[in-house]
Amino acid sequence: MPVPLDPASVEGIVGAVHSTMLVLAIVATLATLGLLAWTLRSSEGRRSVERHRQERRRPTQAAQRDPREALALVGDALAATHNPRVLLPVILEVITEATGAVGGQIFVGGEEAAWVGAVGSDGDQVSLELGSTSDGETTLRLHPPKDGFTRETRALAEWLASQAAVALENARLHDVVQRQAITDDLTGLVNRRRFIEALQAEIERARRFGSPLTVILADLDDFKRVNDDYGHHAGDVVLRSFADLVRSHVRDVDVPGRIGGEEFAILLPETDAGGAAGVAERMRHSLSSVSVFVSDDRAVRVTSSFGVAELVTEQAGDDLLRAADAALYRAKSEGKNRVVTSENATKS
Question: How many other CB atoms are there within 10 angstroms of residue 8's CB atom?
Answer without folding.
Answer: 8
